[in-house]
């Protein structure tokens, strides 16, 4: 009875401060908030870039952070892999492209179009640069953005091409009819991973609850919607390494 009273008190008086990268907040986030609505009196969701969110978690401004990089140098922070997604190339609809059999064939597709990049302030921008070096593709710097909407707006206008992910494309799906999406065959650095970060020994059990909800939403809602919108994506464009293994 004492434990039940304490649990009820926590439910009635606590807030959950949840931070998410923008592409997650705009797609999976609403479903997650709905599912967590009975876990606290108030839930606050902040969106932003991974470096900012991890620092806010470290100093106690956030209770949980869903980010795309787990490299945080703090032994008090626990991490849990939620799911992963593969890179895709995005071209203007009028630009002639063909399917890829290897990632290195990507160098032949731009045909003079400049690469529109995510900025180096963002983890996705840093990860794409590592991927480009991994496949040996050197591309001059032209345009850079922190967010997907302005990046895809330039691609849709025919001003360049981009590397992005299925979740980012679903977030900015208003440009879907003006672009062509080319899946990139898997390579060692050809994926983006989402992690749940939380401080050790706080909110016992809630981290597992958030992870389970997120994976269920990814499997039963987000992945299905993305594949309907982008039917050319391979089945494993979004996957959870633990759950989707044969």
List the helices and strands and how they pair.
Layout: H1 2-13, E1 15-21, H2 22-27, H3 29-36, E2 42-48, H4 50-58, E3 64-67, E4 77-86, E5 88-92, E6 116-118, H5 123-134, E7 143-145, H6 148-156, E8 162-164, H7 166-171, E9 179-183, E10 191-199, H8 206-229, E11 238-239
Parallel strand pairs: 1-2, 1-3, 6-7
Antiparallel strand pairs: 3-10, 4-10, 4-11, 5-8, 5-9
Helix pairs in contact: 3-8
Describe this structure in words.
- The protein has helices at 2-13, 22-27, 29-36, 50-58, 123-134, 148-156, 166-171, 206-229, and strands at residues 15-21, 42-48, 64-67, 77-86, 88-92, 116-118, 143-145, 162-164, 179-183, 191-199, 238-239.
- The N and C termini lie far apart (44 Å).
- It contains eight helices and eleven strands.
- The model is unreliable at 8-13 (pLDDT under 50).
- The protein is α/β, with parallel strands linked by helices and 246 residues long.
- α3 runs antiparallel to α8 (206-229).
Compose a concise summary of this entry.
With 246 residues, the chain is an alpha/beta fold.
The CATH class name of the largest domain reads Alpha Beta
SSE run: HEHHEHEEEEHEHEHEEHE
The radius of gyration computed from the alpha-carbon positions, rounded to a whole number of angstroms, is 19 Å
Main sheet specs: 6 strands, mixed
Query: What is the count of helical runs?
Result: 8
Number of strands: 11
Provide the domain count.
2
Protein traits:
246 residues; alpha/beta; D-Maltodextrin-Binding Protein, domain 2; 2 domains; 6-stranded mixed beta sheet; 3-stranded antiparallel beta sheet; 8 helices; 24% strand; globular
